[in-house]
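Re: [help] complex structure
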Amino acid sequence: MNYDPMVPIWLQVVNRIKESIVTGRLLPGAKLPGGRDLAVQFEINPNTAARVYQELEREGLCETRRGLGTFITPEQSRIDALRERMALDALNRFLSSLKALGMTREDAAAMLNMKEE
Amino acid sequence: MFKLLKYEFRKTAFPKLVMLALTVLAEAAFLYGYFANKEDAMGTAVLFLVLLTLVGIALMGIMSLVILHRDMNTKQGYMLFMTPNSCYKILGAKVLECGLSLMLAGAFFFALAVLDMDLVLRREGVERIWDVFNQMLQTLNTRLEINVPNVLAVICYIVTSWLCTVTTAFLADVISSALLNGRKGNLFITFLLFLVLSYLIGKIVSLVPATGTIQAQFLYQSLISLGFAGLMYFVTAWIMEKYLSV
Amino acid sequence: MLESKNLTRKFGSKTAVDGVTLSLKPGHIYAMLGPNGSGKTTWMKMAAGLMKPTSGEVTFQGEPVGIASREQVAYMSTEPYFYAWMSIRDAGKYYEDFFADFSMSRFKDLLTRMDLEEDLKIRTLSSGMVAKMKIALTLSRDAKVYMLDEPFNGIDLLARDEIRTTILEAAREDKLLLLSSHLVEEMEAIADQAVFIRNGKLIEVRDLEELRETDGVSMADRYRMIFGHGEVN
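Output below.
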């Protein structure tokens, strides 16, 4: 596993799991591995793994059922909202990168339209 | 404790097996000489057997000492000292290994000597080999004569006094490894200490009066040696427990 | 759980560990960091009860380390320490003979995963294979404390992943892991605390995620700040 060592590891793992959720690799209601297994799977410290689940729960993307484990939220609406937030983040990053190159929103839009699939 | 002992035997196994192989060879030569009536071969074999007895018994103690030194002064010692065993047990296993090996070797060579003597004494004409040996011994020690109780007493005495010497060397080596670590001249000090201790113990053992039978005298001396071996063991283990770093 | 108070160890005129007061708690994986000769190995040997301190003390669960603590503290030395006659199987048997918490089935399982044959004589192994075997032996114990001195030394890139996984499998709420390594990057994600030691003195103990969140630096960056001369970023 490769991580950017300057960014909190829990954040990076949270983002990877979020990607798996929005792309459907992790389905709504799916069971997630226990904290220790998550740590082994992602090659991260078990305390970091615990932090990952805390964060996903705080954002309403996961829920822990006592004695059963942690599950992805079954509510599609939350997943849709997540996708929207992540898309918006990606867009903002795209825009700020172009802005750093001295391009306007219009330039960006024109380039986007011109770019062939 | 049994497990520690098992590994002490394992560590010293190879030279012992070599000694055993050599002894078997010498005994084979003796038997060949005996049955083929070749007195020269027999005489040489007997000489070798006597030599092997002495070297073999010496080797038992030296091996134990070498292993102890290695366990205290090389990384190999982690293997031993990381186990949850006190130094009393660790050293105890080493002293027991040495004592048992000496006893077994003593018993082995004694049995062999009795067997060979029995063979020889049954045959006329070859008896004079013993006369020659006895004459040789009488020039050295007028009181000693070759017979079974005497051989037993002598082997007993050799084994115990050697065990005492080895435990004295253990103490000297532990003092060197645990207390004088990394200092120059430390081997010299160790050796000096060993000599002084051995000399003192020898003096005390020789205080046993030369009255009564020679067997009784040897037996008393053996007991005193054993007592000193025990004392050395306790002092050595105490120093290891308190000061030894590996 | 494992504490040292004013721990000092001198070798002649050289002070290897210099008044280190350190308290390590269960549920954490500590990375012990410092250049060669900074005193990491010496600290660990004293904590393992193999070496006697010049002054100060190490306690395990409140008691001075010794025979009792060795039952629950699994120490892996960086130097090879096996008897010349041993095969990998013999080494496993030795651990089984002396450590009640050693699991032979776990050991065999780890050997398979690490591609090691039990029949091999240890003295014929490459340094990487010995390193893997040492990890397998040590982590097959169900100890309370694992102290691994340079677990990644001599191990190739691919096998390092296996080592990391094995280490993480041993981690539990009630267990304490202490790893030392020159390969700082290997420990970035698996450790959660870093213990920095220089010239035998404790510099600091840092929570790594906190370090990244508040200072925006990695463990390796912090290492360079403390031990190097160059400024980071």
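Residues 2-243 of chain B form one domain.
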